[in-house]
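ENTRY TYPE: paired fold submission
RECORD: A
CONTENT: sequence, then structure tokens
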Amino acid sequence: MSEQTIAHERLTNVEERLTRLESLLVSINEKLEQHPDVGEVDTEKTEEFKQWVTSYVSMRLQQLVPETCDHPDEVALQDGPYLDNTTVPCTEEVEHRVKRIPIPFVREMVVQRVAENAQQAGVERVDIEFFEKAATF
């Protein structure tokens, strides 16, 4: 078979599929236009359905991307900045200093070391003085 024949057959198949799709869309549109009166809709069932959809979507999101669904407490968010990818609070000056470290894996190593030292020392908030001591290897 020549390339033109193959291309023509593929084009014909695509056109047939588009025709079927168009007819399906037309039938769906006709069904949607035949909607019941607003007064006939059961609001209690509508609310139940909305709640079911909301809980289902929430569950699926947690299954698919669990790390983005875990939200820290509001109180913790108001405590100020944290060291990157940790739960260790720090001052804004420390946060700025960390962001100035140009190489990402070095920045991550420094943050992890400071976080470990802060947890071992029982430091509630990492200040610049503690950061400078803990960040040295």
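RECORD: B
CONTENT: sequence, then structure tokens
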Amino acid sequence: MRRYCLFLLFFSCCTFQIAQATDASALFQSLRSKVLSVQDYTADVKMNINVSYMRIPQLNGTLYYKAPDKMRLERNGGLSILPKKNINLTLSNLIPSGNVTVIEMGNATIGTKAVRVLKVIPDDEKSDIILTKIWVDETDLVALRTETTTRNDGTVTMDLEYARYTNYCLPDKVTIYMNLKDYKLPKGVTMDYNDQPQAPKQTDKKNQKGTIKISYLKYNINTGLTDKFFSTPEKQ
């Protein structure tokens, strides 16, 4: 009888762990499907970049995105093409694609929102993303925070706020935190185009942090942007 009870207990624990893993995987797949439902968008943005070694004026412009990784930023006073490697401005490129392993990390709170925390590891060893932690609001099925470790840009944390475009999983505000020794700001974004003096540059960025705050003022979603739109040569 004792052996039978121990077997039932062991079987119940295994069943619970399998169910929990399946549930976490299903939640991630649902979130990813919602994020990937946006094939392209055009957004009016305000962008504030805060780094200690450079003074960068607020950037106002229009951001164009086409899945999976094309992006173009037209700013007031010039044009900038954001390189493909700068993946950190869109949620869709911070969520691993392809086959993944999803691990349940428990519950947490962001602000007043209860969230589930998932760890997602790509099965593809060549993926630029090594792992991602996602804080998921199950009620609205959106990611309120991501922490993504990449091969090229180190670890990037993104906080997201939603209001008008929750149904598309598109945020109204994003704050991106990065380690400057791993992250290279796009050339066109960091140009001192307002002729404001720059702060003295520092050569040692080992422990320096930076933030990018983006306010999305208006989206036009799934309008059918073509690849050709993103091949325009950069203008200065």
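NOTES ON RECORD B: Residues 2-36 form the longest helix (35 residues). The two ends are 80 Å apart (CA to CA).
STATUS: closed
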